[in-house]
Every structure is written in C-alpha cells, then in structure tokens.
Amino acid sequence: MIFKMTLRKKLTIFLLAITTLFTFVFLIHPYRKNDSSLLSDKLLRFRVLADSDSSIDQYEKNELSKKMITLLSPALSDIKTKEEALTLLRESLPFLNAYCNYVLSNYGAQNYASCTLGSHLFPYKTYGNYQFPAGIYDTLLVTIGSGRGSNWWCLAFPPLCFANEAFIDVPDSSSQMLFDLLDKDCYEAICLNKTSSNNQSNITSADKQTSRKSILTLGLPSLLEQLLE
User: Fold this and answer.
1) Is the pLDDT at 208 greater than 50, yes or no?
2) Which residue has the higher pLDDT, 213 or 64?
C-alpha cells in the first residue's frame, strides 16, 4: 500500500512537471507558435543561394551579397511598410536580375542568377541585438545556378543586413524602424539586450526627406559608370 501511494505521488509530480513545462513553452516563452507569423507580417527577408559549396561558388555568393546590400539598403531605408518594400522590389526585379548577373560576370562566373519574391522557411537567427524565431517569411531570393550550395541571409526590411555575420550593434535607424513596426510585447520578445529595449522609445530618427528612392535610379548610374570604364 505504501509502495502504491509513493508511485502515485511520483506520477502526480511528473504530470505536474510536464504541465508546467508546456505552460512555459506556450504561454511564457516569448516565441509562441504565432510569434513568427506576427513578425512575418511586418518583416522582409533577403536570401542568396550559392550554386554549390565549392570555394569559388561560395566566394561569388558572398561578393554578390555584399553588392546587393550596398544597392538595397539605401533604397529601402526610407520605406515605411513591408508592402511598400515588396512593391518596390517587385517593380525592380528585371533590373535586379540584370544587376546580379552583371556582378557575377565580373568575377568570371559561369552560372546565371535569378531574383524572385516568395515565401520561404527560415531557422532561428540573430542580428546584432535582436533574435528572430524560425518561421515562414516573405523573401527576396537570389538563386545562383542550381542553388544547392550554402546560403546567406539577412533582414532586408527594415534593413538589418551586414556584410559579415559578426555580432555587431544594429544602427539606431534600423532599431527605430523595428520599434515603430512592432507592438511593444513583440519588440521586447526579440530583444537580446533588454536595456536597449527599454531605452528604444527615446531614440529619435534624423529628419529625412520622404521622397521615394527607386532601386533603379540608385543602382543604374553606378552600373553605367562601370560599363563605360
């Protein structure tokens, strides 16, 4: 009888522990099931797929990523919503395709690159002081050749794209855009540095003209200069 009572007590404790764990995962943990969908409604990812994992293909992927960041960041910096960013990128796809292939040709690449907009699955990722849960996000995807190599990704809107993946501080302008886009609970959930979260409301963006900068007008002059050299 004592043995049965002890076993029942252990079973009760085990079930309580399991219940507590599930409560933490689904109610307390900042990455509940719907958090990635809440973020994906506001954010736009950028992804570059290499043709293979060979050193030359990975080098070409990394160099193209840097060129694209240089092109996209100024164009998207004045955009206020993801919908505006998607519209701008959609209108610019023919130019972006031409630009990517021009960059690759300078490195003697034999593979063709294509730019598309679609929904893609991303793993958990950190950018500077922020963390983003795994989930399906709208994405600007650049595929080089077969696209079977290791990939490179970042956050295109708001612009949190860095030339390397080292842990660095996110610029105040990008932090402010995140703060403005997300509700308070969602913003605090992705902050790795809670102090920056508490102080974020005190950050003010520099006054900027709101005139829309098209990717075409930003990228074409420099491209023409290179072609005429």
Assistant:
1) no
2) 64
Cis amide leading into 158 (omega within 30):
yes
Strand bridging mode 44-49 / 135-144: parallel
Total Cβ atoms within 10 A of residue 47: 20
pTM assigned to the model = 0.70
Residue 191, SS3? strand
pLDDT value for 24 = 40
What letter would DSSP give residue 78? T
Top-ranked range on mean pLDDT: pick from 89-103, 183-197, 199-213: 89-103
The beta strands (E) that lie in the chain are given as 44-49, 113-122, 125-127, 130-132, 135-144, 151-157
SS3 171: coil
Question: For the residues 173-193, what does the mean pLDDT come to?
Answer: 81
Q: What angle do the packed helices 55-76 and 215-228 form, to 10 degrees?
A: 130
Q: In which region does residue 108 sit, left (phi positive, over 0), alpha (psi from -120 to 50) or beta (all else)?
A: left
Query: For the chain, how many residues are written?
Result: 229
The helices-and-strands tally (H runs, E runs) of the chain is 8, 6
N- to C-terminal Cα separation, the chain: 93
- Rounded to an integer, the average pLDDT of 101-108 is 92
Instruction: List the Cα angle 213/218/220 in 5-degree steps.
Output: 140
